[in-house]
């Protein structure tokens, strides 16, 4: 029924009728908080859709004028009077939707609606529409920037996971035609120190030297793992081998300092570095 009509509008090849039906549950995004708003949609070429829209709003205008005439003239009229009124209303009037329930609601559409294209309300609606579009564009830009930021964070997390597992996870975001990055798995070089490295009251100096030796022994083991990692380029492999040799040399120097101190204190020297690194030649 016409009294249930909320809006008539068209956009390019789409013609839609919005009807207020309390018995129906709304599924439209154009409800603006109203319930029971049902949207019926048809599609055709632009000229046909616009013609249908013009005929629809003209017929709705006829319904409104007829309703107002009935309210003003309650008595029955003759056919001649009705024909005269129809002649005076020969030019279709396009106005905004006004029902007897006094719903003075302004409903906007992109290409056409119940609002007259030449009225003052139409100009206001166009300005409101432009402001709304600008506001939506700003929100869209902010959302895009936030999305890019989150994508970069996700990439970093996926790369960290790939360095631990040696495989890029499927959640890594890829652009159109982009190949997943090549990531080498990190070599495990973490080590745990002994719990008895604190200086003892017996000989704090010797205990410090022993603790320093244990720490550098772990560093030598870590340097060895890095130097023996496969699939290294020539320069990196050479550099890591040199770092490993320097670490072994430093370890031997610490052991020599320990033995010198032990001999000074009247104790027997040890050979810890040779025992700690079997099969390795100490420079």
Automatic annotation (TrEMBL):
GO terms for cellular component: adherens junction; bicellular tight junction; cytoplasm. Residues 126-153, 237-264 form a coiled coil. Keywords: Coiled coil, Cytoplasm. Residues 1-67 form the FERM domain. The keyword Coiled coil applies. InterPro entries: CUPID (IPR021774), FERM_domain (IPR000299), FERM_PH-like_C (IPR018980), FRMD4A/B (IPR047176), PH-like_dom_sf (IPR011993). GO terms for biological process: establishment of epithelial cell polarity. It is found in: Cytoplasm. The keyword Cytoplasm applies. PANTHER family: FERM DOMAIN-CONTAINING PROTEIN 4 (PTHR46079), FERM DOMAIN-CONTAINING PROTEIN 4B (PTHR46079:SF1). This is FRM4B protein. It comes from Hylia prasina (green hylia).
């Amino acid at each position: 029924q016409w009294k249930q009509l909320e809006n008539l509008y068209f956009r390019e090849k789409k013609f839609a009728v919005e009807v207020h039906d309390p018995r129906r549950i709304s599924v439209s995004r154009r409800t603006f908080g109203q319930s029971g708003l049902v949207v019926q949609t048809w599609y055709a070429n632009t000229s046909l859709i616009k013609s249908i829209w013009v005929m629809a709003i003209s017929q709705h205008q006829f319904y409104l004028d007829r309703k107002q005439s009935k309210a003003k003239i309650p008595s029955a009229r003759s056919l001649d009077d009705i024909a005269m009124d129809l002649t005076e209303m020969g030019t279709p009037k396009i106005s905004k939707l006004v029902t007897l329930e006094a719903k003075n609601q302004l409903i906007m559409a992109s290409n056409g609606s119940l609002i007259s294209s030449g009225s003052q309300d139409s100009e206001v609606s166009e300005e409101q529409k432009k402001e709304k579009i600008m506001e939506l564009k700003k929100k869209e830009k902010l959302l895009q920037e936030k999305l890019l930021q989150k994508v970069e964070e996700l990439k970093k997390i996926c790369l960290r996971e790939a360095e631990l597992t040696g495989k890029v996870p499927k959640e890594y975001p890829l652009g159109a035609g982009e190949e997943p990055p090549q990531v080498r798995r990190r070599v495990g070089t973490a080590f745990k120190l002994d719990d008895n490295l604190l200086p003892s009251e017996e000989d704090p100096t010797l205990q410090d030297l022993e603790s320093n030796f244990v720490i550098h022994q772990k560093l030598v083991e870590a340097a060895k793992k890095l130097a023996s990692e496969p699939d290294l380029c020539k320069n990196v492999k050479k550099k890591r081998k040199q770092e490993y040799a320097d670490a072994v040399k430093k370890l031997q120097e610490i052991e020599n300092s320990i033995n010198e101190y032990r001999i000074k204190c009247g104790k027997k020297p040890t050979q810890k570095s040779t025992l700690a690194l079997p099969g390795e030649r100490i420079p």
